[in-house]
Design brief:
mainly alpha; 0% strand; 413 residues
Length: 413
């Protein structure tokens, strides 16, 4: 006979948490990557020709608030659990997308797409999700699980970008935003799955816990952490510049609009393979060396693409290869943070690294829109991204990735 006093089985297994977290990233990043599709039409309709910089600033502000909010959301999630943070993010995301459909002034666009969806992304993206997955899984499987969860965002690109383009072609950009809002609303019920009790976290041996301030000081006086976050700045500049402006860049170069729209989807498709592979390799090789290779290869493929004649074939090849390198930085960076500082404050510390990533995103997105209005091309930002990628490769090489030793708590003390 069953003992009624025995605890009920915990259905929130590591696999269930991984599945829910991957789906949340799928919805969050998938919806975000459709912004480049409706950006030109919305800009022309709302603000007139040669005003791409207005909505570019709105989307750049999203990256900025996404970054600013991430360590705050991470700290709350570290202390009180991820469920409420993710649910609030789903609500904000949906409100922001709906508000954008009625934004008739720059400030309304900045508030809806910039502030609301920016804070939403801070609570429903990689630092929060990967921290929850890291706590749920054993250390030997961590890199693999982080790679799988990171690949979820690319799955969203693959499915939601062509879906969004189809809706735009049939009904216009406003209806497309309503469809995206309906999908981001699904984040709210998924947040329930991500709720875990402290006792369930697979954190390993109990160690002396640092206060929030002490954990921040420890990280920012660690040279390796500073170098890691500096490299992550470059990642944000490269990926979000391409993710936001690449379709418009290709259209301006007279590439077929269908190929231009599918380029981001193709990046997402190959990133599923790439992120999974980089995450798996992170369990076998030192992550900092993998980051050196990844940043270098990004810059090299960008050089090759811009120097060759631009055609549908070159776009397809570039998108496929870039996809293999797209979000591989995410599981590698998160794994280094967990390895060096432990899991207790991972959400917050990975969040601070993500602030740097999003500062890079802000500069890449806004500068690209600004220079495109000025010169009619993206050459200045493209070459800046290439040079900075090579610099990021050099910055990751000397990172000290050894775990910080702290005093272990003695039972009964």
């Amino acid at each position: 006979m069953n003992n009624p006093a025995s605890p009920a089985p915990n259905w929130r297994t590591p696999f269930v948490i991984l599945l829910a977290g991957t789906t949340i990233v799928f919805l969050s990043l998938g919806a975000r990557m459709t912004f480049g599709l409706w950006l030109p039409d919305a800009s022309n309709e709302l603000f007139g020709p040669n005003q791409l910089k207005i909505l570019s600033l709105s989307i750049a502000l999203q990256s900025l608030f996404w970054g600013i909010g991430t360590p705050i959301a991470g700290n709350i999630a570290d202390k009180y659990g991820t469920g409420r943070v993710i649910a609030a993010a789903g609500i904000l995301y949906t409100i922001g997308l709906v508000m954008m459909t009625v934004s008739t002034t720059p400030w309304m666009a900045h508030l809806s797409i910039g502030v609301f969806t920016g804070f939403a992304m801070s609570g429903a993206m990689f630092p929060i999700i990967l921290s929850a997955v890291s706590r749920a899984v054993s250390p030997e499987k961590r890199n693999l699980y982080l790679g799988i969860a990171s690949a979820g965002g690319s799955s969203g690109q693959v499915i939601m970008i062509p879906m969004g383009q189809a809706v735009i072609d049939a009904q216009g950009w406003v209806i497309m935003l309503y469809v995206m809002a309906a999908m981001t609303a699904l984040i709210v019920p998924l947040a329930y799955v991500m709720m875990t009790r402290k006792a369930e976290a697979n954190t390993g041996p109990a160690v002396v816990e640092l206060s929030t301030g002490a954990a921040i000081r420890e990280a920012f006086t660690h040279r390796g952490y500073v170098l890691l976050t500096s490299g992550y700045f470059v990642c944000g500049l490269q990926t979000m510049f391409i993710g936001t402006h690449f379709p418009n860049m290709l259209t301006s170069l007279e590439v077929d609009t269908t190929v231009a729209a599918w380029s981001l989807s193709l990046i997402g498709a190959f990133n599923i393979i790439g992120t999974f592979t980089w995450g798996a390799m992170g369990g076998k090789f030192r992550q900092k060396y993998l980051l050196c290779w990844l940043y270098s290869l990004r810059s090299l493929i960008m050089i090759a693409f811009i120097l060759m004649p631009i055609s549908s074939t070159s776009v397809i090849v570039f998108s496929a290869v870039m996809g293999l390198l797209w979000l591989g930085t995410v599981p590698l960076t998160g794994s280094i943070v967990a390895q060096v500082f432990g899991l207790k404050n991972m959400g917050m510390l990975f969040g601070f690294a993500f602030v740097a990533h999003q500062l890079g995103s802000f500069i890449g997105i806004y500068a690209a829109g600004y220079f495109f209005d000025l010169f009619g091309n993206y050459n200045a930002v493209w070459w800046a991204a290439i040079v900075m990628g090579l610099v990021a490769s050099l910055m990751n090489y000397p990172i000290n990735d050894k775990p910080i030793e702290r005093e272990t708590l003695v039972e009964g003390a």
